[in-house]
Design brief:
heterodimer, A: mainly alpha, ABC transporter involved in vitamin B12 uptake, BtuC, two-stranded antiparallel ribbon, 73% helix, B: alpha/beta, Rossmann fold, 4-stranded antiparallel sheet, 10 helices, 10 strands, binds adenosine-5'-triphosphate, binds magnesium ion
Chain lengths: 290, 240
């Protein structure tokens, strides 16, 4: 019983991290139709930057949360640069976009290996969250509960931004009909850069928040990217609700799959993706056919 | 003629290799209405798209109140005071009616002398939109969608309104409503280009008429003169 509950909490925590990663991926794909294969790299960069600040590798030790925000801001700028100077030059060329983003992800991986070496870097759980919560006879790690809380807060904030503000309506108008959005005066290109930067920041934030759980190591980018892809295909691109549901489904499938059928973990993970692609190509909550 | 609100001067436009507009020139006077006629595929919508910046002119110039806007992107042409009610309406389907209006809101430019359009005044003009303010725009009827498309264009407080076949696919009664609205807008001092296939709709309201034929300006005239010239109409528009 305790085992299953703990596995469930771990699944939800992992789902929460996936949500932070995939929400941006989904938004970028939904709005700009760009399959951003650097998204795993943005996650990894966030994790490395954050670890560098937290672990005092630059001489000064930063507070975990401040480090997380700094990492997110840095990666947001990196994302905006990629969008403005590379992807912007390749409108409507998905193959070129795939190749460019894939290329950048390999380059980032090389640079990270050079800068941080091949050994995993541990990130300490932020002080104050190292304990456990006791619910009835069960104890849960406090930090994992906090990650779930953060994802909920971010999810609600994103929903408010997209659904309840004028800028959110402008973004959705840009998704609906980019040309008409420009005709009514919306600066779609500026919005695109903003959304890309926001997605990058969220990915980076997920990277450092996930640090105490996953540690940071070379290859974590290529470990996370396919998971984000599956989440978005499952949930439907551009749909926030889709990202929430997709992340949770994958969080559970991944953790339970590894616990129950370790040799079939990937099979369990990707089978639903294949089914969704065949039966409902726009995803569970998507409006578009990718 | 009054000052020119919008002019196309020797415009050539292409879709890929196909040369769709050939040396097209015409002028919309301030506070006037120009009826733009032509058969299917004559190039009417292409003129609107070029005027709005959706399609670049390869040669020639486009001017808004004398200022060249050739090759500016749509959002900048919109800022210079031009708004489009596109063919097929193209409302933002996954936005609510209110959001469709809100995203297009813009204060009138310094040169704007007209009363300012706001969401309230749009709702006054189209009470049915107010009743459906929080519905998804996709669920509106065709006539309501057309009203929303007009309201959305007005929210930008334009000085020039381009209307591409606003009567298309609507029941006669709704067409009459839309035409009444267009007449009111003209009286408010907006400069308007009204694209139509049916010349009779346009003859009632327009000051000037331009007929396109296969991407060229075939006729520049007035409703009064054209109504007497059945042969010319038949030559360029087919039989009515
Ligand atoms: N996106 C496009 N790509 C290629 N050719 C196009 C495109 N849009 C229009 N055309 C072609 O350009 C020509 C002019 O089209 P346009 O839409 O301007 O005609 P129109 O006068 O508005 O016709 P309608 O009354 O049917 O709306 C047509 O021959 C059409 O087939
Ligand atoms: Mg047309």
């Amino acid at each position: 019983m305790t085992f299953w509950l703990l596995l469930s909490v771990n699944s939800i925590t992992f789902g929460a991290l996936l949500f932070l990663l995939a929400a941006g991926f989904s938004l970028i794909f939904g709005l700009m139709r760009i399959p951003n294969l650097t998204h795993g790299s943005l996650f990894m960069l966030g994790a490395y930057f954050g670890a560098t600040f937290v672990n005092g590798m630059l001489g000064a030790y930063f507070d975990f949360w401040l480090a997380a925000l700094m990492a997110a801001a840095l990666v947001a700028v990196f994302g905006a640069v990629i969008e403005r100077f590379l992807l912007r030059q390749l409108p409507g060329q998905p193959l070129a976009q795939v190749l460019v983003t894939l290329g950048i992800s390999f380059m980032v991986a090389d640079l990270c290996l050079m800068a941080w070496g091949g050994d995993p870097i541990a990130v300490a759980t932020p002080p104050g969250l190292t304990g456990f919560v006791r619910i009835g006879p069960m104890v849960f790690p406090l930090y994992r509960i906090a990650v779930i809380g953060i994802a909920i807060v971010v999810g609600v904030a994103l929903w408010l931004l997209l659904d309840r503000t004028r800028i959110g309506a402008m973004i959705r108008a840009g998704v609906d009909d980019p040309d008409m959005a420009r005709v009514v005066g919306i600066r779609v290109s500026g919005l695109f850069t903003m959304v890309f930067a926001l997605g990058a920041a969220l990915a980076a934030f997920a990277g450092i928040i996930g640090g105490p759980i996953l540690t940071v190591y070379p290859g974590i980018d290529q470990y996370m990217l396919p998971l984000a892809l599956v989440v978005v295909i499952l949930g439907g691109s551009g749909s926030l609700l889709g990202s929430v549901v997709g992340s949770m489904v994958i969080g559970f499938l991944y953790n339970f799959g590894q616990a129950l059928f370790p040799e079939l973990a990937y099979f369990v993970l990707f089978l639903p993706m294949l089914l969704v692609l065949l039966l409902r190509p726009q995803g569970l909550f998507g409006r578009f056919i990718p | 003629m009054a000052t020119s609100a919008l002019s196309l001067e020797h415009v050539d436009a292409f879709y890929g290799d196909s040369h769709v507009l050939q040396d097209v020139s015409f002028e919309l006077g301030e506070a006037r209405m120009l009826g733009l006629l032509g058969r299917n595929g004559a190039g009417k919508s292409t003129c609107m798209n070029v005027g709005m910046g959706l399609l670049g002119a390869r040669n020639g110039a486009i001017k808004v109140f004398g200022q060249p806007v050739t090759r500016l992107p749509p959002e900048q042409i919109s800022a210079s005071g031009v708004a489009l009610v596109p063919q097929g309406r193209r409302i933002f389907r996954s936005l609510t009616v209110r959001e469709n209006l809100v995203v297009a809101a813009r204060k009138p430019g310094t040169a704007g002398r007209h009363a300012e359009w706001t969401i309230e005044t749009i709702f006054e003009m189209f009470p049915r939109l107010q009743e459906r303010a929080s519905q998804m725009a996709a669920h509106l009827s065709g006539g309501e969608q057309q009203m929303l498309a007009i309201g959305r264009a007005l929210m930008g407080n334009p000085r020039i309104l381009l209307m591409d076949e606003p009567s298309e696919g609507l029941a006669p009664q709704i067409v009459a409503e839309v035409m009444a609205t267009i007449r009111k807008l003209k009286e408010s001092g907006l400069s308007i280009i009204l694209v139509e296939q049916n010349p009779n709709l346009v003859f009632d309201v327009a000051d000037d008429i331009v007929i396109l034929n296969t991407g060229r300006v075939a006729v520049v005239s007035t409703p009064a003169a054209l109504q007497k010239d059945d042969a010319l109409l038949r030559q360029h528009l087919g039989v009515f």
